[in-house]
Amino acid sequence: MVVAFAFALISSDFPISTAPNYTGYPSVCYANDQFYVFWIDQRYLPLRSLFGARVTTDGTVLDPDGRELYTDSAGYSCDAAFDGTNLLAVTRNHC
To answer: Which of 29, 37, 44, 49 is most exposed by smallest CB count within 10 Å?
Structure first.
């Protein structure tokens, strides 16, 4: 289960995804007044996927259980960045 860290504006941890199978390697990016949370997800075993969800500053998860961004052989990590205009989420192909 992907669980958000208690951000300064939110008083407690809360689930972002409760989908079955392993989820991990989260990466969080703040852009456009909301958080973007990305993680590696194995709900489609044996494939690994990159999933993402938007979370408001009050802790409302706009994409419960996330949105599938890439499925094939996502690696064991992901990262995200925002340059003021563009949001980029990346994962290493697991080969």
So the answer is: 44
Report residue 55 as tokens: 């979370």
Evaluated on CA atoms 57, 2, 25, 45, the torsion sign reads negative
Identify the burial level of 54 via C-beta atoms within 10 angstroms of its C-beta, where 0-12 means exposed, 13-18 middle and 19 or more buried.
Answer: middle
23-66, pLDDT tens digit by residue? Answer: 888 999 999 999 999 999 988 888 889 999 999 988 899 999 99
Radius of gyration of the CA atoms of the chain, in A: 13
Indicate the pTM of the whole model: 0.83
Burial label for 42, CB within 10 Å (0-12, 13-18, 19+), is middle
